[in-house]
Design the sequence.
C-alpha cells in the first residue's frame, strides 16, 4: 500500500525511525526535535500524524480528537476464500480482504487474508495480551468458516489511532504565523479518501501562501 509514497519520495531526503518530540526555533527557522538531535531548519512544518501525536508535536491542546483502535490480523491460508473482500456482522471481525486478489500480488506466495477487528471490540481489549487477542480473532475466523488457517503464522498489528470518532470542523489545520500545519483523515472522513482530500486541500492553501511570500520577498528586494 505504500508503493505510491515510495515512488513519489524516490529523490527526497527521507528520515525514518525518528520519533519527533516537538518543534523549536522561530517561524522563520523551524526545527524538529528528536532524541538523536534536531533536523532543520525548515520554512514550514506539516504533520500528517494522528491528532494525539500532532497535538504533542505542536503543543496545541486544541488539536484534540478521540480515536477508536483496530487490531489487524494477517494470516496465511491453505485455500483461497470465494470472495475478494467482505464486510462481517455480529463478529469480532468487521472486515476481510484476500491479499492475493490485490493487483500485482503473487497468487501462490501471497495466499492469505487480512482481518480488521471491530473498533469497539478492539477498544475493549487494548490492555489484553497480544497472544490472547490473536487467538480470539483466529477463533472468530474459524467461526466464519475460513478454511486452511495457518494459525502458527498469524501476525497481529494494533492500529492505536485507527478511526477518528468525529470529523473536524475544518479540512485541515494551518497556523500561518507559526508556519505549522496538519492534515489527515481526522479532519474529514475516517478513510484514505478523507486523508487524501484533507492533504490536497492543505496543499492548495500552502501553495498559494508560499507563492505570495515569494512574490512579497521579490518586491522587497526590488524596492
Sequence:
Amino acid at each position: 500500500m505504500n508503493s505510491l509514497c515510495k515512488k513519489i519520495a524516490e529523490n527526497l531526503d527521507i528520515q525514518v525511525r525518528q520519533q519527533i518530540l516537538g518543534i523549536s526555533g522561530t517561524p522563520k527557522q523551524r526545527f524538529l526535535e528528536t532524541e538523536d538531535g534536531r533536523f532543520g531548519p525548515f520554512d514550514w512544518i506539516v504533520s500528517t500524524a494522528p491528532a494525539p501525536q500532532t497535538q504533542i508535536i505542536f503543543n496545541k491542546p486544541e488539536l484534540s480528537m478521540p480515536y477508536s483502535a483496530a487490531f489487524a490480523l494477517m494470516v496465511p491460508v491453505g485455500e483461497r476464500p470465494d470472495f475478494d473482500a467482505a464486510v462481517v456482522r455480529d463478529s469480532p471481525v468487521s472486515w476481510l480482504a484476500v491479499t492475493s486478489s490485490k493487483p500485482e500480488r503473487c497468487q501462490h506466495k501471497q495466499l492469505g487474508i487480512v482481518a480488521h477487528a471491530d473498533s469497539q471490540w478492539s477498544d475493549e481489549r487494548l490492555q489484553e495480551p497480544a497472544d490472547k487477542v490473536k487467538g480470539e480473532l483466529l477463533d472468530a475466523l474459524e467461526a466464519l468458516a475460513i478454511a486452511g488457517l495457518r494459525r502458527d503464522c498469524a501476525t497481529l498489528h494494533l492500529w492505536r489511532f485507527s478511526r477518528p470518532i468525529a470529523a473536524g470542523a475544518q479540512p485541515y489545520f494551518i497556523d500561518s504565523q507559526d508556519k505549522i500545519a496538519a492534515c489527515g483523515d481526522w479532519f474529514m472522513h475516517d478513510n484514505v479518501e478523507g486523508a487524501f482530500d484533507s492533504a490536497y486541500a492543505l496543499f492548495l492553501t500552502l501553495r498559494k501562501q508560499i507563492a505570495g511570500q515569494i512574490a512579497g520577498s521579490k518586491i522587497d528586494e526590488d524596492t
Notes: The chain has five helices and eleven strands. The mean pLDDT is 88. The domain at 3-64+167-222 is CATH 3.50.50.60 (FAD/NAD(P)-binding domain).
